[in-house]
């Protein structure tokens, strides 16, 4: 079965490269474009660190980000941590298993963290002692389904979905273009994303650890 990725660039190219390295027959067409949002930064003196749930926050926060590079960064995963380091941050913690799990690991600390996030974001519950100051610095703009993607989906495919907004938009575009969901299987990055998929798909499976490597393993298992 052909595997298709629909995430925005530059993540799309990275997913395709990693998928091919894992032995998957994979192609990709972005159904989203990441765009920066204007944001009003708090005073750096009021912030102890920066919480990052995506490398997109680093890429699209603009020059204002430089006001905070003297703060410690708390990153959801290695890709985000690498982007933070390249931007000049010292990384205090790298999570495994999602942003909430990373936050839970800070229980007992007393920190005021600036969360740089996308317009669609995972809700978080801060443990005692942790205060979150959230700023939206980017958004995912939905794109219409290109003809090449429509043709590939009509032949049957396994689609990798990295966010809830992506899987919902995929479903809406399939319905709009008359592409039967029943010929499409979905591999979701997390159970929450799988739950957002809705009904009618040939198969929906979700990784238990929200990491790209785990998603590709899941896709390989589903293909076999």
Q: Overview of this structure, please?
A:
32% of the residues lie in helices and 26% in strands. It has 224 residues and is α/β, with parallel strands linked by helices. The chain folds into 2 domains: 3-31 and 143-223, Rossmann fold, CATH 3.40.50.10090; 34-140, Rossmann fold (3-Layer(aba) Sandwich). Strands 3-8-7-4-5-6 form a 6-stranded mixed beta sheet. Strands 2-1-9-10-11 form a 5-stranded parallel beta sheet, sandwiched between helices.
**How many structural domains are formed by the residues?**
2
Low-pLDDT runs: none
Radius of gyration: 18 Å
Order of helices and strands: EHEEEHEHEHEEHEHEHEH
**How far is it from the N-terminal to the C-terminal residue, by CA?**
8 Å
| Shape designation | elongated
In helices, the fraction of residues equals: 25-40%
Largest sheet: 6 strands, mixed
* CATH architectural grouping of the largest domain: 3-Layer(aba) Sandwich
Strand count: 11
CATH class identity of the largest domain: Alpha Beta
Q: How many helical stretches?
A: 8
Mean pLDDT metric: 95
Main β-sheet, spatial strand arrangement: 3-8-7-4-5-6
Structural class, from secondary structure content? alpha/beta
Portion of residues in beta strands equals: 25-35%
Provide the CATH topology of the largest domain.
Rossmann fold
